[in-house]
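Dear Dr. H.,

I hope your travels went smoothly. While you were away I took the liberty of generating a structure for the chain from your last submission, since the lab meeting agenda had it listed for discussion. I wanted you to have the full record in hand beforehand rather than looking at slides cold. The sequence, exactly as received, is reproduced here:
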Amino acid sequence: MGNIVLVGSLLAILSGLMNGSFTLPMRFLGRWEWENVWSLFIMCSCLLMPAVTITAIAPQSWGVLAQVPAHAVWIAIAAGFAWGFGAIMFGQSVSAIGISLANTLVLAISSALGSLLPLLLLAPQKLFSSTGKMIVAGVVIELVGIILCGTAGRQREQTIGVGAERGDLVGRARPLGVALLLATGSGLLSAVFNIGFTLAQPIAEFGRSAGLSEFSSTNLIWCLMLGAGSVANLAFCGYLLAKNGSVAKFRQPGGARLYGLSALMALLWGGSIFVYGAAAPKLGPLGTSIGWPLSLATGLLLANAIGIGLGEWRRAPSRAKGLMYSGIGVLLVAIVVLSRASY
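The corresponding predicted structure, in token form, is as follows:
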């Protein structure tokens, strides 16, 4: 049992590393508008990758999917569609305030709610058990880290202004207040993604009973959720492409590099979802309460390291940097607490 949990924890961490690095290519895509990048990213990660993965690994999954419980299908579709709006807000928040701060706010909020709400929905009687208490403690610690990092962002903005140290980041800068609303909305709806995955488990159970592997059974859920989430994203991107006349940018000379970077974003993020799907079942009955914060907090730390390495905090005052580093340290403590909850 211990070895299985260890493998699940390592997979959750790998998922977080992929999730934390997928926004890095956005730093080098400034020749395109946000909608150019995001539409390709969504098409590859939410439509193409799930279809290719299912077909390559277990092509019989398509027949099984047509027979899974209808109520679970609707849960997956509804949660995926709601998450789609959160993905839009996340992409906008990265352009608004940079990789490190956007990931910090969005992933920490999503981690806290995505950990606590499945516990309350699926096993409320365990809230006061040792596992439940550690999950609650980890969430509280994460909230302290969010406050510290948010305060650091405010001080950075007051000192060096909006949009400083952006480099060739795609999209446009926004005031921190607007970005905070985007990040909060994204964090809330990203938590819905994990809750939907949790409540749609009857789909995976049916898949296993039909002879699919654990991994292929989980992929049935991802196919539904990601497909539903793509609807909101592609509709919004289509509106911006028409409004801004940015369709022409897809035909820019030398665009192969831009297409490649957008595809890399999709590969990293889409891969993180499938790796997380393999991790959660190995972490026990409360795997989605433990694996989700472990994955997201790992991604949060890597995204901060990337942002700092790219100079997003280079001209920030020392006090702001100190608050940011303190917030990262607090979030590290939260990772330890939440990962220990699995034992």
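Two observations you may find useful: The radius of gyration is 19 Å. The first helix runs from residue 2 to 21.

With kind regards,
E. W.
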